[in-house]
Amino acid sequence: MPIVCRGSSLISKANSNAHNTGNSEASDRLAELLKKLPQDQQAVGRGFGSDIDEAHGVLLDPTAGPDARTRAFTEWLRRHQPCLFGRLAARQGQGVTAAKGLGMDFCWIDDTDLAYGTEHVTALVQQERRRWKERAARGESSAFLVVFNSRTLAHAAPSSQLAELCGVLADTYLVEQAPVAVDTVYTEAVPLRCPDGRTRLFKASTQLFYTGAHERRNHAGASPAASSYPSTHPATTAIRWSCAV
Predict the structure, then answer these.
(1) Which domain holds residue 123?
(2) Contact between residue 55 and residue 63 where contact means Cβ atoms under 8 Å apart
(3) Were both Cys, which of 108, 153, 196, 202 would link to 234 (CB 3.0–4.6 Å)?
(4) Confidence of residue 88 (pLDDT cuts 50, 70, 90)
(5) How far is residue 94's CA from residue 82's CA, in Å, rounded to a whole number?
(6) Helices marked H in the chain — which ranges?
(7) Is 204 part of a structural domain of the chain?
(8) How many Å apart are CA 167 and CA 171, to the nearest integer?
(9) What does pTM read for this prediction?
(10) Are 216 and 244 in contact, with CB atoms under 8 Å apart?
């Protein structure tokens, strides 16, 4: 089962242009929070560890496409993700060494998408969320990662502003739970068609990873490419998302 990656190209040019009309960007909460997001210049100067810095060399390269970014991210997951199932899922596509029954879908959100605002980002995330659930129902994917691939987010200092922004980003994914609160457990409902022909729902964990967690008390939540919200299928536990300040 190949790793599936999609990005903003799935939103039609006409649909994207609709977000350029009027003053929607100027009044959009997501855009405003990004403009005010404090940057951690000291952390940027010393780096986020050789593993994350190496991945950022590709992920934050404006000339790199979704396929190249996905390869860089999955290579980081395969070697450095604390979660065993995450490391195994990242090995799909490696032939006989790939883990059976595990798969991973990516949704890439870049600075251009973020500039369009909350409505645009929500539409893209929900479109890919539905496609992932269709693949999950067929047993073709076990994880969905929404990657907000932004230098501004990757270099953000842990702060109340970052926590608020992460809440807005989480709302674009968990729309039925919005507004999402910090230090609260949320689960995803993921379908799976069983051999008896019935479709059953499983609870899946939802988690937040962000670069600024590096060398802080929640270091296990550090990852390249700023913030990502993975759902893992199936799962019986949920993990809190929070931003340590």
Answers:
(1) 4-9+26-181+210-230
(2) no
(3) 202
(4) low
(5) 20
(6) 13-18, 24-27, 29-35, 41-46, 50-59, 66-80, 84-89, 111-116, 118-137, 151-154, 160-173
(7) no
(8) 6
(9) 0.76
(10) yes
